[in-house]
Structures are given as C-alpha cells and as structure tokens.
Amino acid sequence: MKTTSVLFAGVGGQGIVLASRILAQAAFESGLMVKETELHGMAQRGGSVISQVRFGFEVHSPLILRGEASRLVATEELEGLRYLDYLRPGARVILNRRRIAPAGGGDGYPSDTAEALEKRGFKVTAVPAPEAAREIGNPRIENTVLLGALSRHLDLPVAAWEKAIAALVPSRTLEVNLRAFRAGRRF
C-alpha cells in the first residue's frame, strides 16, 4: 500500500486531534505503519488547528509536504480553504458545512465553498455534519460524522474504525459516536 496522507484542518474545539487519533488508530488496527503530528495555533481561542496522519506499509515522517495530501478533512469551511496548498491535484476534500466567523470579522467565504473547491479540481464530499449531529442528539460529534464520510474514501475496514472509536472516545459517548460514524458513512 502506498503511503496515504490525510490533513485535518479546523478551529480549536472541533475535535480535530481526537478525529486524527481515531484515524491513526484505525490504520494501526489494520496492520499499517502510522505517523501523526498536530499543530495547535491558539486552539483554545478558536484559532487554527491542523493535524497530519500518514499511514501505509512504510512511513518515514509524520509531516505532509505541500502538494502531497490525498485527503483533507475540513471541519470548518474557511480553514479548509486555508490549507489547499497541501493537497495534491485531484485530492478528496471532506468538507463540513460549518462556517465560523473569523475573530476579526469579515466574510472570507466564497458563496459556495464546495463549488469553489471543485472548480480548482478537487473532489468534494460536502457533509452537513452540524445537522446530522443535532439529529443524533449531540452537537459535539460533528467530527465523528466527518470520519464516517472519510471512511468511505479510505481502504480501512469498518471494524477497525469502530474499534478505534471504542478505544478513544469516553465510554459514556461510545454509542452516540458510533451512530455519528455510521451516519457519516451515508454521505
């Protein structure tokens, strides 16, 4: 298996670190070598957070070079746009339909982020994770909904994903996270 590079981008408090750890654990459960790193820029104040996960039969570095990522999970639309230079041509973007106004104000969003990404040659899976999470009954599980959507575009067994979720989320939230993951797989 060729090395797969997945970039997670969003803002503090959106569960990026947990989501990337779940992916890393699912890859590990699948018998693959995994490297992971994260960057918290003012995360506690809603600042930018990215996490990088690389997995395959042989992985030498956790860092994703610009133009190398095959997948981007954007938990917030503007943050997804901010890190496009990390994507290789034709990469898959799992785009959460969530907009968080920048701290300085203004609206840096295109009228349709998914369409803007597609025009740049990326494959987009736009996920209304906020609505899905509310329907399930917990607005804090958007990240797990997005993992479900991502899982459709990675060659990792569903059982490995579910085992990773069980290992990493608090036991009291396991069932709701599994429901969120399964809901995300429908997108």
Automatic annotation (TrEMBL):
- Can the keyword rRNA processing be found in this entry's annotation? no
Molecular function GO terms recorded: oxidoreductase activity, acting on the aldehyde or oxo group of donors
Against Gene3D superfamilies, the record matches this protein to: Pyruvate-ferredoxin oxidoreductase, PFOR, domain III
Q: What does the UniProt keyword field contain?
A: Oxidoreductase, Pyruvate
Q: What is this protein called?
A: Indolepyruvate oxidoreductase subunit beta
Biological source species: candidate division TA06 bacterium ADurb.Bin417
Locate the Pyruvate/ketoisovalerate oxidoreductase catalytic domain: which residues?
12-185
What InterPro entries does the record point to?
IorB_Oxidoreductase (IPR052198), Pyrv/ketoisovalerate_OxRed_cat (IPR019752), Pyrv_flavodox_OxRed_cen (IPR002869)
Q: Mind telling me which residue stretches traverse the membrane in this protein?
A: none
